[in-house]
Amino acid sequence: MSETNSAADVAAPHRYTAAMAADIEARWQDFWDAEGTYEAPNPTGDLAGDPELAAKPKKFIMDMFPYPSGAGLHVGHPLGYIATDVFARHQRMTGHNVLHTLGFDAFGLPAEQYAVQTGTHPRISTEANIENMTAQLRRLGLGHDKRRSFATIEAEYYKWTQWIFLQIFNSWYDTEADRARPIAELVARFESGERATPDGRDWSALSAAERADVLSDHRLAYASDAPVNWSPGLGTVLANEEVTADGRSERGNFPVFKAKLRQWNMRITAYADRLLNDLDGLDWPEAIKLQQRNWIGRSEGARVDFPVDGAGSITVFTTRQDTLFGATYMVLAPEHELVERIIPAAWPEGTHPVWTGGHATPAEAVTAYRKQAAAKSDVERQAEAKDKTGVFTGAYATNPVSGDQIPVFIADYVLMGYGTGAIMAVPAHDARDFAFARAFELPMRCVVQPSDDRGTDASTWEDAFGSYDAKLVNSANDEISLDGLGVVDAKARITDWLKEHGVGEGTVNFRLRDWLFSRQRYWGEPFPIVYDEEGIAHPLPESMLPLELPEVDDYSPRTFDPDDADTQPETPLSRNADWVNVTLDLGDGAGPKKYRRETNTMPNWAGSCWYELRYLDPNNSEKLVDPAIEQYWMGPREGQPTGGVDLYVGGAEHAVLHLLYARFWSKVLHDLGHVSSVEPFHKLYNQGMIQAFVYRDSRGIAVPAAEVEERDGAFYYEGEKVSRVLGKMGKSLKNAVTPDEICGEYGADTLRLYEMAMGPLDVSRPWDTRAVVGQYRLLQRLWRNVVDEESGEVTVVDTEPGEDTLRALHKAIDGVGGDMAGMRFNTAIAKVTELNNHLTKAGGPLPRPVAESLVLLVAPLAPHIAEELWRRLGHTESVVHQDFPVADPAYVVDETVTCVVQIKGKVRARLEISPSITDAELEALALADPAVVAALDGAGIRKVIVRAPKLVNIVPA
Fold it and tell me: Do 371 and 244 share a structural domain?
């Protein structure tokens, strides 16, 4: 007989059981919805007429946008949602006006794939998934302001996503003002002659198409021929994340090629410095900041121009301009736009046979090699391959300092995504250049004095020599000598020389590339752009927003021969001629004209770039957000100079792309005066992952974890021995546990407590269904301390507690309050448990002040049982907005002992604790200590030996 259906339940009809928990939880969830318990007032409404409410500090708490999967939730998904809910509840009880809600990031590839497979409209499946997920989340008792929830697929939402796109399209980055400005201001400068056109002609002399091209070079959203991952077998362009390391599509395992297609881009590179510098003011984990810094990749160096006869110059960016005298050849990315312009009709006389790849002409060699390179992923191209590949273009460039004619190659180890897509190769001092030079029998010139005994004849070396500490050699011409200089001084001198001679200058380069913003799919936001008969892009006026997706018969992109890299995609939208070809009056004075709509859609990142703003003012159909509301919830303030959400919780897997894109949009909107916050998220917290054991049979196939038996330390499925490893939780691994299962067995409050008690919130931890019962028993003991299990009557008495109880109570209040504010929920639960155990051991009915404080302490963690007990204690108002207990300092001071915490025998922490602490409570405190967490550095734990109250010894896995 299970814990939740035992004979004891019959003998004690008012015992806290799963059935009672289900009844209590459903009733209070209905009550909260009916009363609007979690509705946060905005400053333009209720706050304006309520001075007391207006005086409260605010707290805006957010979870990262969930995607409504058809598989529903498993117990790993709500970890962060429960944590933010506990924190939000504590903040309400400590006097804050709290905004906490949750919407759905509902555009995306999974729903479209399902539509392709089944013919079901993506909206139908997505809305069904949202309904299911909403029900699952409601059952957890999450205190969301449901008035503010939305899905990105709602036309009233993506109307403003389209509107923001138009703000970006109609803007340019003014480097003098260091901010975005309306494109109309740039046009005015061209018209007045304040700013010259690229070719020097008057603005009025340019055709409409020429003006559009000039402005496109400045717009923050622009269309260009961009290298993309093209999968003919899927008929679509893929994001880098959808391409495997083998250069094939994650879905279907089709070949993926590099192709140039007309795509929309966001000029995020204009904000590179600001995105980098403003990280310093954010309260984010240092590891996340480092990932963003590395992704932005700022490096100081020089731009150098290498003239090519009849084709201008090849420009490179280098951080080692001091080695310029050692550049003996050049390499362009196969996709580089100059390749076609520099290749001659025939091979130059004396061309080395190895350089030609066996082809009769440079054009043939280049075409063949480009096809070969297009079949590789960027990861493959950057890998340290044993054999370097490439081909001579037939062209030579001039080294600007030595005057030498050096051959120009194309090779796949150079990418268009970094620098200029061209490098000056210094093979004596770069390992990849050295390997390439050896393969193609190219000369090497030593220009940095080796620190070993290899000498300066690089042709005799076995590998390259690179150093920042050595002196320069062999680096002089008639006008400048770097010989004998250190690297830093040599860089400065050659940079000045390059600028004086007009062949380069010092500059800063970024690894960050402009954001490719097009997808050849159906289920995404349509672009509010139309093209006239000359191909010029025009923005739709705001009155025509939202531009809604049309109905289509076929959601599939057209597929092609998987090996045919030369095909072009055909999007689902392009097949709807009535939607694509329209006659419109754009209100620009041109009257009704024929236009063609953009048939790409926005990427799924678009909707999550600004959703924090919609939470503030979700029903505003006139503005993106009311300025007063945005200022109140997100505006800059003391300690938060760039503004933003007070707490943003989500997985570390979004360290770069989502967070970087949202920061970019926020800065553009700020520059244009639409928001006061410069940054979207002030404080970021990454929760860990709930893991689960994966069991595999002899074939390596996952078997249902729930059906595995453990016998004598081994694991068996249907009598066959299986292996066990700790991994992710998921349907495909057959180890998923749904929150519905746990709620049905124990109740939502038990699930909430268990997930928060498993360990520090930011550390991954394994799920163990058998351990859930511990938190269930805690709630049963809490219930028994207030309610008689036989009669159902409240047993508290109106007497004053004794000193021992007062000390235990106020120590718990002090500790739990601090832990709640610091999001140390596991230790908060340990302290509530310690207090509850103390009261249980003390015996007798609880004094009312103690009982009420105990209920208030547990309210953020287990809100349903807290509401029920609070009501039974005679209160008519919800516990949600009661004041959190305040500790009396006189009772907090207590005798303590010092506990030593060791890891591998080394003392890592000393804890001041109560002499009466239990082993379990001490273990929880030790594992949550910051010094212990840092020392473990993510390592698993094999064993914890506790000798309360003096010693904890941790044995890492």
Answer: no
348 and 412 housed in the same domain:
yes
Helix axis angle, 109-118 relative to 122-139, nearest 10°?
120
Q: Domain end: 510, 545, 566, which one?
A: 510
What is the distance between the terminal CA atoms of the chain, rounded to a whole angstrom? Answer: 36
Residues 494, 545 share a domain: no
Of the candidates 41, 509, 441, 475, the residue with the CA atom closest to the CA atom of residue 301: 509
What does each C-alpha distance from 549 to 521, 561, 571, 794 come to in angstroms? 11, 29, 13, 59
Distance CA 954, CA 460 (A): 55
pLDDT in tens, 145-191: 999 999 999 999 999 999 999 999 999 999 999 999 999 999 999 99
* Cβ-based neighbours of 490, under 8 Å, separated by 6 or more: 322, 472, 475, 482
Structure tokens at 627: 């300025």
Measure the CA–CA gap between 461 and 472, rounded to whole angstroms.
18
Domain containing 493 equals 298-510
Query: Minimal CA–CA distance to 678: which of 281, 366, 107?
Result: 281
The pLDDT assigned to 5 comes to: 52
CATH number for position 379: 3.90.740.10
* Residue 935 host element (H or E): helix 930-936
pLDDT in tens, 787-824: 999 999 999 999 999 999 999 999 999 999 999 999 99
**Using 50, 70 and 90 to split pLDDT, how confident is the model at 1?**
very low
Which of residues 457, 489, 510 is at a domain's end? 510
Q: How far apart are CA 43 and CA 500, in angstroms?
A: 59
306/258 same-domain check: no
Distance CA 448, CA 402 (A): 16
User: Do residues 494 and 529 both lie within one domain?
Assistant: no
Same domain assignment for residues 206 and 314: no
What pLDDT, on the 0 to 100 scale, is given for residue 843? 85
